[in-house]
Structures are given as structure tokens and as C-alpha cells.
Amino acid sequence: MDCSTMESLKQVRISEFKQVRLLGRRLALQPLRLQRIIVAVGGLCLLLNAVSMAQDRQADRARALLKQGIEQYKSLNFKQAQVTFLKIDASRLTPAERKKLDSYRSKFNDAIKKQAEALEAYDQAVEALKANQLEKARDLFEKVASSEFVPEAVRKDARAQRALMIRRINEAKAREIAARKRQ
Q1: What one-character DSSP code corresponds to residue 166?
Q2: In 3D, which of 75, 64, 122, 125 has the Cα closest to residue 97?
Q3: Residue 31 burial class via C-beta count within 10 angstroms: exposed 0-12, middle 13-18, buried 19 and up
Q4: How far apart are CA 35 and CA 39, in angstroms?
Q5: Nearest to residue 159, comparing CAs of 175, 137, 144, 179?
Q6: Closest to 127 measured CA to CA, from 142, 141, 137
Q7: Interval 107-131: pLDDT, tens
Q8: pTM reported for the whole predicted model
């Protein structure tokens, strides 16, 4: 063999050795790459799980606020219920829950207004009673007693006051009739 052929063979062997060495490195790096891929996929799964859990917590919070707001509304705490309902992220609720939320939200202004009117009527009835305006007090107590927007204790008191006003009015009429008979 001549020198150039030997040199060529040497070059081929060096080239093959480099390729084998490179292949060996690649094969040696394969588990490392696989490990990196597994870590990346695992991290992505953990991230997605964390996002899902956060969304679940937000949905749970929205449902809890909805329940709390409904309880406040039913206990005639309209202003507090309104504040609670305004805190709710409706996008975290199911369509049925959103419909319920919208239903309650649409009632607030009217309920707050009617409650204020009934409580004002109660105050006016007390003032009319103090001024001995029995018919006016009776009518105002009747308005309060029939209002579904004031607490039961206030309605009960208004019914009792109304009954008292009716009795006092009847007593006043009886005294008036008796006074006419004496004349």
C-alpha cells in the first residue's frame, strides 16, 4: 500500500472513530434528553393542575358568595346581599347559577326601595301615634305589616300596633257616641 492509501485509510478510521464517538455521546445523552423531556412534561402537568385547582377555587368562591348573597337576601339584608353579589365573578358559575344570580341582581333596587319605604312608614306611624293621629298611624302600620321587605319582628310589631290603633279608634268613637247621647 502506498502512503496516500494508508493516509486515506487512516483518515477513514479517524472519521469512523469520530462518528462512533459522536454516536456514543448521542446515545449517552439520550437518557439525559429523555429525562429533560419527562421533567418538562411533568412540570407542564403540574402547572396545568395548579391552574385547574385555582380555577376550581375561584368557582367554589363564586358559588359560596352566591349562596351567602341569597341567604342575606332572604333574611332581608338587601344592601349587604347586593355588596356580596357584586363580588361574584359570574364567569365562574354554571349557566343555571348565572341565571339565579341575574334574577337576584334584578330585584335589588326594587327591594331596597320598598324596604326603605316600609321602614319610613313605620317611623311615620310612630310619629303619628305620638301626635294622636290614630287613623294615620293605623294606615301606616298596616302598610308596614303587609310589607314583605321588612323583618318579621317589625311586621309583627306593626300588626300589634295596628290592632292597638283599631282598638283605640273604636274606643274614641264609642266615647264620642256616648258624649253625644249625654247631650
Answers
A1: H
A2: 64
A3: exposed
A4: 6
A5: 144
A6: 137
A7: 888 999 999 999 999 999 999 989 9
A8: 0.61
CA distance 155 to 134: 18
Q: What is the spatial distance between Cα 113 and Cα 128, in angstroms, rounded to a whole number?
A: 22
Q: Determine which helix (DSSP H) or strand (DSSP E) holds 141, and give its type and residue range.
A: helix 134-145
Question: Which of 68, 71, 74 is CA-nearest to residue 152?
Answer: 74
Rounded CA-CA distance 167/148 in Å is 25
In this structure, how many other beta carbons lie within 10 angstroms of the beta carbon of residue 65?
19
82 touches 66 (CB < 8 A) = no
Q: What are the helix and strand counts (H, E) for the chain?
A: 5, 0
Give the cell for residue 178: 256616648
The number of angstroms, rounded, from the C-alpha of 169 to the middle of its chain's C-alpha atoms is 49
